[in-house]
């Protein structure tokens, strides 16, 4: 991508380089005026290989770049500037100004995001994405909590993506009973907690490392969204999908709150307008069009066998998931946690 290389960026960031905006002067040359435009650096670990998740992100960035008189956008995908697990640190350090991130990756940094992936509850948010749309009560509550960590979530993509299921290869998993004693890849701590009652050993593995982990047998199965299966070519290693909706996530955009608050009004308006379009179309378009019309048919044509949970398994999982809800509420406070759950359920 165009812009600074990773090495150049980190060198200048480490030296304390910044963008200084001065008052215009008649003496300024055109190049000096252009240099006064603030630069906003953004990142995502997602690669163009995610044919569903990536194009709308690229479209949002392109929309922002149509405001060269207001700002310059430097954007780095595929973890080329900072790795997945470095994004939050880079945001807090001010070396980047915004990031796209999968919420399940950062629930330890921001526990309130865990509400999006609570087992069983995630199915409600999947069916009602409007409950976490920009300016919704749940979006506002989440931002009230995030503000305590000086963080602002501009958009959660207008909803969560289709829930994560269990995918396996030679270690065939087609029921809850099959999970016992298995080592399963997870990302969120909520997922790890949900799987514990079934005798599962969780292994936190980023999607960028997942292919080799599955190929080498580091894990017996993986808990993942279909985007990960397709975007990271995990479909080459799996044969079965146990379609129990265990947890979920959204692709969200984050800023430091104090930096967002101090941004020029016109710049904030440009980000807000681009985010509103993203919020309106992202999760809805992927869930309702891309997955059912492209990804699932591709996998089934390739020989993937899908096993749906029985009603008894769904009930069992829901009952055994309740302690995870209680555990999560302790992380953020009983009152706030229950309010978030109620809003996710469409209550209040």
Give structural notes:
With 348 residues, this protein is an alpha/beta fold. It is built from 13 helices and eleven strands. The strands form two sheets. It has a six-stranded mixed sheet. β6, α7 and β7 form a beta-alpha-beta unit. The chain starts with 5 loop residues before the first helix and ends with a helix.
Q: How does the helix and strand content classify structurally?
A: alpha/beta
What is the spatial order of strands in the main beta sheet?
7-6-8-5-9-11
CATH class term of the largest domain: Alpha Beta
Number of strands: 11
How many structural domains in the coordinates? Answer: 2
CATH architectural name of the largest domain:
3-Layer(aba) Sandwich
Mean pLDDT figure: 90
Give start-end ranges of low-pLDDT stretches: 9-30
Q: Give Rg in angstroms.
A: 21 Å
> What is the beta-strand fraction?
15-25%
CATH topology of the largest domain: D-Maltodextrin-Binding Protein, domain 2
How many helix segments? 13
Global geometry: globular
For the biggest sheet, the summary is:
6 strands, mixed
Q: Would you identify the CATH H-level superfamily of the largest domain?
A: Bacterial extracellular solute-binding protein, family 7
Q: Percentage of helical residues?
A: 40-55%
Question: How far do the termini sit from each other?
Answer: 45 Å
């Amino acid at each position: 991508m165009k812009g600074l290389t990773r090495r150049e960026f980190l060198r200048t960031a480490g030296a304390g380089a910044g963008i200084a905006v001065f008052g215009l002067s008649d003496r300024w040359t055109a190049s000096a005026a252009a240099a006064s435009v603030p630069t906003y650096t953004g990142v995502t670990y997602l690669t163009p290989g995610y044919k569903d998740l990536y194009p709308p992100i690229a479209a949002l960035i392109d929309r922002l770049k149509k405001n060269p008189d207001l700002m310059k956008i430097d954007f780095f995908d595929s973890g080329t500037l900072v790795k997945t697990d470095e994004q939050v640190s880079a945001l807090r350090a001010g070396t980047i100004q915004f990031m796209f991130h999968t919420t399940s990756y950062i629930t330890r940094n921001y526990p309130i995001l865990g509400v999006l992936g609570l087992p069983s509850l995630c199915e409600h948010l999947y069916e009602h994405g409007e409950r976490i749309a920009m300016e919704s009560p749940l979006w506002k509550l989440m931002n009230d909590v995030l503000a305590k960590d000086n963080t602002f979530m501009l958009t959660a993509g207008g909803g969560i993506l289709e829930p994560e299921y269990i995918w396996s290869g030679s270690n065939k998993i087609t029921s809850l009973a099959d999970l016992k004693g298995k080592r399963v890849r997870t990302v969120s701590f909520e997922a790890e907690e949900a799987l514990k009652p079934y005798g599962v050993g969780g292994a936190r593995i980023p999607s960028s490392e997942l292919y080799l982990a599955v190929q080498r047998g580091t894990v017996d199965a993986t808990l993942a969204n279909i985007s990960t299966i397709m975007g990271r070519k995990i479909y080459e290693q799996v044969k079965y999908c146990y379609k129990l909706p265990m947890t979920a996530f959204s692709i969200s955009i984050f800023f430091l709150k104090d930096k967002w608050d101090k941004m020029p009004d016109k710049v904030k308006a440009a980000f807000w307008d681009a985010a509103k379009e993203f919020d309106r179309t992202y999760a809805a378009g992927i869930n309702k069009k891309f997955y059912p019309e492209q990804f699932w048919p591709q996998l089934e044509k390739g020989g993937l066998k899908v096993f749906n949970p029985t009603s008894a398994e769904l009930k069992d999982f829901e009952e055994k998931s309740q302690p995870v809800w209680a555990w999560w509420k302790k992380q953020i406070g009983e009152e706030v946690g229950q309010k978030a759950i109620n809003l996710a359920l469409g209550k209040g």
